[in-house]
UniProtKB/TrEMBL annotation, chains A, B:
InterPro entries: CoA-transferase_III_domain (IPR050483), CoA-Trfase_fam_III (IPR003673), CoA-Trfase_III_dom3_sf (IPR044855), CoA-Trfase_III_dom_1_sf (IPR023606). It comes from the Bacteria. PANTHER family: SUCCINATE--HYDROXYMETHYLGLUTARATE COA-TRANSFERASE. SUPFAM superfamilies: CoA-transferase family III (CaiB/BaiF) (SSF89796). Pfam families: CoA_transf_3 (PF02515). This is CoA transferase.
């Protein structure tokens, strides 16, 4: 496990000042791709180490965001701690942080100081609202970013409340974009020799996914209505009832709809004068739903998934996580992996969504014990054993 | 607009065989960052050109996914068309496609053929389920990927159906991941001199966002319940009623909750024996909600947003898109921009979520007219004017 990573980013050194969610996701992606990620933690550690259900004393939540990193414990409230950080940054390619805007400057690491220290350093920041504008000092949180970005407002039943997504999507999307911005800056640096600042705000990242909902708003001035699981413009579409539960069917255009109805022996619907246009079908939703449900109820979900997929009709089951993780496709795609803790148990976690055939993502390094990389990383940075021991005795660093 | 892009990816040439959503989002991100994106379209064009509300005959939906590209019309059903494509690929850095697995091979561009043509070429594929496994031939669609990935299953009210997100999140997240994988492969190529295949499946991308929901499942074997807009483990948290509507408040831990309640002059709750632990507060949700609502109803949303944010309590409004696009923070972050069509009107669209201070994302090129870049791109590839004219006469290319 300690051998150098072979991913496409091997040789890229990332100093990671992030904690909790958005930033750690960003740096884990970089680590999965082979970067050497050094996670700087305060003496008490990233708070997520103590969160979620523990397995043999180890947090699976922490593990799922921190594989492929080394942990260095450093007290940044002390001058000597900040001096160690500066020495690490002098040799690094990337710094990633997810403090509130202004915190880095209070650590003595404003833009000018960082440029002085290492003009090639790429400085990536993930935050809630961005570092300019009236909300710059507001605290951020995923639920709030979902609300402010317009994302919640378009989700949910027409007669129900706006609905958040349960996963912390704004944190995670910001983390992915930040990793992307970092790599763009690495490529740009080949030409300029200079690093630059990269910033992604959670609200902006989530807003960027509003796709045709935003273009329709710009074109019409109409705020999109919530439509639950139904398509706003097309019917039949949505959830239908089989013998043993529902399946989701996406008849996104007439050609697919025709195949769907023909597979159900309901092909006549498309030429029946009551239903032969989409507006008529939208108006006759309840009748059509009854017709379709009564046909589908006679067979199992598995039956319909087989014949409909074979007919080229996009369809699937609304899977819960137990079903997802038992799904042979998820297994074939290796979307569940195990990664060991440093000196601890191997835990199951999500796999790599980016598949590379030459230098694939891998578990290059275990989930780090708090401070488990401090001695090694400081030695690599040129600190001798005596100095390391003294810094540890003085509580500036933690050796784990 | 025709001057070379100045973004960090300037000089990177991307041949874009994608259409509709996931792939075009990937290549637009690369174009926003300065790559030279050549969108290969069939003679009838990307179907999205005809979708959504038209402004002066131009689709805002198409514009929002295709700025910063040049359009080349090429009939890939003809040998001569595929020959042009091969010539473009010989000099390119990246090919991006979002066909169903196997389609590229049917165009004569299987892995071996592409490697022969250009060993430095990075070949990125975005698809529904991945190119291995039992579902490889299934048609993909965002709604289905939301269902199959477990994402829908965790969203929605406890007593309601599983709830999709209205934006096509699985397409878009796959597109972002694909862009990230491409850039990692570009960086890896510096060391190896070789391109490689990059693949992102919509289901895998969305599954990768399941975060602590998945780690809790792995640790406990319990499928997470739907909790609507409420936090599964903490109360008070969620939507509360002000004089002029609701606000969202994320009291994610006791320290923030204390500040929230003190700001409402309800600080006594934290030491009242009925409410002094989180389990007691979870059990007394209805009472607490009434207490909080009755306090907050006396003042406007604006009032509470000001005082709560100042107190460090994450809170915000559930904004609809009209409110989002009127929000001064969104304006300060330049999240609405205008991009011109080639020979057409400028349209409003979403801005750039990745902020770079040295070589920022920009509208380097207009939204392309169908085939509006064919002549220019073929000339750059060494085709002389007579050959271009003949290919156009024969219907192999379209000059727009």
């Amino acid at each position: 496990m300690a051998e150098p990573a072979k991913g496409p980013l091997s040789g890229l050194r990332v100093i990671d000042l992030t904690r909790v969610l958005s930033g750690p996701f960003c740096t884990m992606i970089l680590g999965d791709l082979g970067a050497d990620v050094i996670k700087i933690e305060p003496p008490k550690g990233d708070p997520v180490r103590a969160q979620g259900t523990m397995t043999d004393g180890h947090s699976g939540y922490f593990a799922g965001f921190n594989r492929n990193k080394r942990s260095v414990v450093l007290d940044l409230y002390r001058d000597e701690g900040r001096a160690v950080l500066r020495r690490l940054l002098a040799d690094a390619d990337v710094l990633v942080e997810n403090f509130r805007p202004g915190t880095l400057a209070r650590l003595g690491l404003d833009e000018a100081a960082l440029k002085d220290l290492n003009p090639r350093l790429i400085v990536a920041s993930v935050n809630g609202y961005g570092s300019t504008g009236p909300y710059v000092d507001r605290p951020a949180f995923d639920f709030i970013a979902q609300a402010m970005s317009g994302f919640m407002g378009v989700n949910g039943q027409p007669d129900g409340p706006p609905m958040r997504a349960a996963p912390p999507v704004s944190d995670l999307i910001a983390g992915i974009y930040a990793a992307l911005g970092v790599l763009a800056a690495v490529i740009g640096r080949e030409k300029t020799g200079q690093g630059q600042a990269v910033e992604v705000a959670m609200v902006n990242g989530l807003l960027s996914l509003m796709a045709y909902l935003s273009s329709e708003y710009f074109a019409t001035g109409q705020v999109p209505a919530r439509t639950g699981n139904d398509h706003p413009l097309v019917y039949p579409y949505g959830l239908f009832r089989c013998a043993d539960g529902q399946i989701a069917v996406a008849n996104s255009h007439d050609q697919i709809l025709t195949r769907f109805l023909e597979t159900l022996d309901l092909g006549w619907i498309m030429s029946d004068p009551r239903y032969d246009t989409n507006p008529k079908r939208m108006a006759a939703r309840d009748e059509l739903r009854d017709l379709i449900d009564s046909r589908m109820e006679g067979r199992s979900r598995e039956y319909w998934l087989d014949v409909l997929n074979a007919a080229g009709v996009p369809c699937g089951v609304v899977q819960d996580l137990a079903q997802v993780f038992a799904d042979p496709q998820i297994a074939a795609q290796e979307m569940v992996i195990e990664a060991p803790w440093q000196d601890g148990p191997a835990l199951k976690m999500l796999g790599f969504p980016i598949k590379l055939d030459g230098t694939p993502c891998a578990v290059h390094r275990p989930v780090p014990r708090l401070g488990g990389g401090t001695g090694e990383v400081l030695a690599e940075a040129g600190y001798d054993a005596r100095t390391i021991a003294k810094l540890a005795r003085d509580g500036v660093i933690g050796l784990g």
